[in-house]
Amino acid sequence: MSLTFIAPPLQQINSEIARHAGVELYVLRLDLMHPWVNGNKWYKLKYNLLEAKEKNFTTLLTFGGAYSNHIYATAAAGNLFGFRTIGVIRGEERLPLNPTLSFAVQQGMQLAYLNREMYRQRNTQALEEYLRQRFGEVFIIPEGGSNLNGVRGCTEIIDRAMPTAGYAYAFDRICVACGTATTIAGIALSLHEGQRAIAFPVLKNGAFLAQEIESLLTNYLASDLPSPYSSPASWELVCDYHFGGYAKVNDELLVFSQQFSEEHGLPLDYVYTAKMFYGVMDLLQQGFFSKGNSLLLVHTGGLQGNIGMEERLQRVSKI
Asked: CA-to-CA distance for 308 and 151, rounded, in angstroms?
């Protein structure tokens, strides 16, 4: 497995919708950084891995659902950087394993399962103590890499776009899909004055994430971790494009994703980026963005999940 990570390229989207709106549209292709450890997952893992290494931990333990991009990336990163990995999976074991969990096992990850009631306690000290008694001294990474180390990594995402773009493209708006609030918090901390971050929650009733974002920002700025700026840039949530909730899709989203991918040579994942891209294109048609704006859409990876999603959709269609 390669240790080589490439700088994420910047891709301009030549869209009639964007031209009509008077807006320039770019995508930061974090999905192309590495075959297995890419997207925002790498940035959320990076400083967790460094802390684990500095503290001489040999085993990483983390949490996720059966189709989790985070489980997939943690298994691969552990294999790359010499850690043993344990994935605590929500729900009961189902055999044969789906493509996500099969890959994790191939990377050496040990899978353990928790019923949903116990899994809801994953951020409590009591469950952490139970897991340490069961597995020994482990470095625990929260689900999705959602901690201050994760935020720190995400402060570096937009910096990766700047050398590619040069000074000609000072992006006015940065758009990203939102699941745990970690990525948008890191991005908000890294933007210049006048820039604005826009997060598209992929969960139903995602307005609650505003409190999560504020909490992460407050705790990060109160910590000793480095911050590009002393206060975050402005940000907002656009909660209208969840398509029914987390991992929910419909025919409209599937058709959009497939057509967009074919037209622009840009694959989207159904759970995160397809919803954000759909939202941006819809808002462009509504005149949400000002003429002359330059938009940067962050492709957060997660394409591995399409395999499992398509299998699930095929099973549903046969019922």
From this structure: 28
127 contact partners, CB below 8 Å, separation of at least 6: 118, 121
CB 198 within 8 A of CB 174: yes
Please state, as a whole number, how many other Cβ atoms lie within 10 Å of the Cβ of residue 224. 5
pTM recorded for the entire structure: 0.94
Per residue in 154-198, pLDDT tens?
999 998 766 565 544 579 999 999 999 999 999 999 998 889 999
Residue 314 has phi, psi (to 5 degrees) of -65, -40
Measured at the alpha carbon of residue 8, what is the angle toward residues 16 and 258, in degrees to the nearest 5? Answer: 45
Partners of residue 236 on adjacent β-strands: 198
| Rg of the Cα atoms in the chain | 19
Secondary structure (3-state) at 188: helix
Nearest 5°: phi and psi at 288?
A: -65, -35
Angle between helices 69-81 and 39-54 (to 10 degrees): 50
Q: How far apart are the first and last CA of the chain?
A: 39
Instruction: Answer left, alpha or beta for residue 190, where phi above 0 means left and psi between -120 and 50 means alpha.
Output: alpha
* Residue 211 structure tokens: 């409190």
* Other beta carbons less than 10 A from residue 273's beta carbon: 29
Do the Cβ atoms of 179 and 209 come closer than 8 Å?
no
> CB atoms < 10 A from the CB of 99, how many?
17
Bridging pattern class, strands 10-12 and 139-141? unpaired
Residue matched to tokens 């294999």: 79
